Amino acid sequence: MKLHLNLATSPLENNRRFVAGAGLAGAVALIALIILAHQSYSTWRANSAIRADISRIEKDIQTETEQQAVLSRFFELPDSKTVLDRSNFLNSLIAARTFPWPQIFEDLEKTLPPGVRVINIAPRLEGGRAAIKITVGAMDDDAKVEFLQKIEGSKAFSNIRVIDEKYSDKQADRGVGNDHIVVALEATYSTI
Questions:
Q1: Which of 81, 126, 146, 179 is the most buried (most CB within 10 A)?
Q2: Within a 13 Å sphere around the CA of 114, how many CA atoms are in the beta-carbon half?
Q3: Strands (E), 38-115
Q4: Does domain 99-189 have CATH number 3.40.50.720?
C-alpha cells in the first residue's frame, strides 16, 4: 500500500501550461530571429552591390572633374584664349550675315506710312528668334499712330512694345528729317 503524503507548506502546482507557453513563445521568437537575420543579410548583400556602384560612379566623377580641370587650365592659356576670341568673333559675323536684312526692310517698307522714317534698327537673336529694337521718327502724331497700327497688324512683327517716345517742339531740336516725334520700340521679328 502506498501512501501519498504532502508535507510541503504549499501545495504542488502544475507548471505544464507555463512551460508549454514559454516554449512556444521561444520557438516563435527563434523563427522571427531567423527570418529577420535572413532579411538583414539579403539587404546587406543588395546594398553592397549598390555601394560598389556608388564607389564606381564617385571614381568616374573624380576622373571627369580632373579632366575638366585640365581642360579649363588649357583654355586659360593665352594661345587658347586667342583662338576662342577669334572663333567668337567669327561666329558673331556669321550670325550677323544670316540675319534676313532684305526681308526686314521689305516688311518695314510695308508698314511705313508717309511722314515716318526709320532712324535705327538693332537686331539680336534670343532663343532662335530675332528680337529687334527699332527707332523711328515721325513728322506728326497721325503718322506715328498710323505706323503703330500698321506694325501691330503686320504678320512679321509681334510682341510690339513702345520703349520710349520723345517730342520736339523747337525747329532747332528736330533731326535731319524734321521729326517731331521719335519713337523707340521693341518687337519680335518672324519671316513666316
A1: 179
A2: 0
A3: none
A4: no
